[in-house]
Amino acid sequence: MKELILKYKKPIVITLGITALNIAFGFDARFTIINLLWLLV
């Protein structure tokens, strides 16, 4: 479990950050899609 968390720590943190920003500033679909695509690359 620990290795899994270490391996995916960056994507998890980025996803949580995107979610937090969407909650704070209102949902922006374009911003979310761009960040999720960046995550997959």
Secondary structure topology:
Blueprint: H1 2-7, H2 9-25, H3 29-40
Helix pairs in contact: 2-3
Can you give the helix content as a percent range? over 70%
The number of domains is: 1
Q: If you average the pLDDT, what whole number results?
A: 80
Q: Which blocks of ≥5 consecutive residues have pLDDT under 50?
A: none
Let me know the number of strands: 0
Class from secondary-structure proportions: mainly alpha
First-to-last CA distance: 24 Å
**Count of runs of 4 or more consecutive helical residues:** 3
List the helices and strands in order. HHH
Largest sheet entry:
none
The general outline is elongated
What is the CA-atom radius of gyration, in angstroms? 12 Å
Strand content: under 5%
Keywords: Membrane, Transmembrane, Transmembrane helix
Transmembrane segments: 12-40
Structural overview:
The chain is mainly α. It has helices at about 1-5, 10-25, 30-40. The protein is elongated, with a radius of gyration of 12 Å. It starts with a helix and ends with a helix.
